[in-house]
Amino acid sequence: MEDNEVKERIHKLSDAIRTTRRIKNITQKELSEKAGVSTSIISQIENHKIVPRLETVIKLTTALEMTIEVSKAWKWYA
Q1: How far does Cα 78 stand from its chain's mean position?
Q2: Of 2, 5, 17, 3, the residue nearest 48 (C-alpha)
Q3: Does residue 78 sit in helix, strand or coil?
Q4: What is the rounded end-to-end Cα distance, in angstroms, of the chain?
Q5: Distance from CA of residue 63 to its chain's centroid?
Q6: Do 35 and 63 touch, CB atoms closer than 8 A?
Q7: Tens of pLDDT along 21-30?
Q8: Summary mean pLDDT of the chain
Q9: Which of 3, 40, 57, 71, CA to CA, is 20 to 30 A from 9?
């Protein structure tokens, strides 16, 4: 998988986290408390500033009750 494809998938995941959070009317602070992830990290993920660790993605998507498919692309960031 090309680097651009990986970045695009991560951006889509970040956008899905932000969209789901907003649909559920959850603030970054509330998500932070529920997932055990700092608000700073959540903001950076949602704004495509950092590549989240798989552990962080799992915490956020679990807190948001999202289902994700983890592909081989994540091995590149492990």
Answers
A1: 15
A2: 17
A3: coil
A4: 15
A5: 11
A6: yes
A7: 999 999 999 9
A8: 87
A9: 40
